[in-house]
Amino acid sequence: MAIDGMWVPETAEIGANPYLIHRNKDMFGEDVGVYRPERWLENPERTHLMDRYDFVWGYGSRKCVGKNIALMDGQKFVLQVYQIHSYTITQVLTVIALP
Q: pTM for this one?
C-alpha cells in the first residue's frame, strides 16, 4: 500500500498526532498559533476543511464516547450560571488591538 508516495506494509499501524494536525498551516491558516476563533466564520469552504480535520475528540472508531455528554454538560453549566446569578454591565471597556 502506498501513502503519499511512500510504501507502507498493510499490517502497519498508522497513528496521528492531534497536536500536529491542529497546527497545520495549510488547513488552519498561517496564524495557526494565534487564538482567533473568528477564523471558523470567515470562509465556509475553509470551515468545512477545518471541521473535517478537527481531531480534538479523536476520529472514527476511536472517537471519545463521552463527547456529546461533555458538550451538553458545558452548555448546561453556562445556562445554570446565568440562571443562578444576575449580571449587569457597569462599565464598557475599549479594546485596543496591539501590533
A: 0.56
